[in-house]
Specification:
The chain is mainly α. The chain has one domain. It is built from eight helices and no strands. Helix 4 packs antiparallel against helix 5 and helix 5 crosses helix 6. It is globular. The termini are far apart. Its main location: membrane. It is a multi-pass membrane protein. One of its GO terms (molecular function) is phosphatidylglycerophosphatase activity. It is an enzyme of class 3 (hydrolase). Its cofactor is Mg(2+).
Length: about 160
């Protein structure tokens, strides 16, 4: 992260700590991928939760992320800096709706989510360009996660593994 932005955030600030994916967003290369990886322990903690609880946690992660990401972007004085990765955490939660958390499924879901998040096909590209603030930061990754989820369900339906 460029020094000028790094000086504007602190891992001691709980909002920044969450927005930066518990520090994973500070990795100098591929922070979005490391933010996505940071979601895996959280996903595993919710593995045995009933569906209603998993959906509730996913909604909480996404809604809280609007504040975490928006406030951290404001504090950094830059929109959607690469080190802000809470949106990747929310996207990963969306990816695994009704998907069993096996090692193979985790890898496939991670790859699909990063594919949609990086390439930003329609409608993700439009959301990324038109929505701003915390909502914009979060929404494109939530949609990428939902697209990855639908893709993973289709793959598992056609080729269960």
């Amino acid at each position: 992260m460029q020094r000028q932005y790094r000086e504007r955030v602190s891992l001691k600030n709980p909002v920044h700590f969450c927005a930066l994916g518990f520090g994973s967003g500070l990795v100098p290369v591929m922070p979005g991928t490391f933010g996505s990886l940071a979601a895996i322990p959280l996903l595993l903690m919710t593995w045995s939760a009933p569906l209603w609880m998993y959906v509730s946690i996913t909604l909480l992660v996404a809604v809280a992320g609007i504040y975490f990401c928006g406030q951290t972007a404001k504090d950094m004085q830059v929109h959607d800096h690469g080190s802000i990765v809470w949106d990747e955490v929310a996207g990963m939660f969306c990816t695994f709706l009704l998907i069993p958390l096996t090692p193979a499924h985790l890898v496939a879901g991670l790859v699909l989510f990063r594919f949609f998040d990086i390439l930003k096909p329609w409608p993700i590209y439009i959301i990324d360009k038109r929505w701003h603030g915390g909502t914009g930061i979060m929404l494109d990754d939530v949609v990428a996660g939902l697209m990855a989820c639908v893709s993973l369900h289709a793959i598992l339906l056609l080729w269960p593994f």
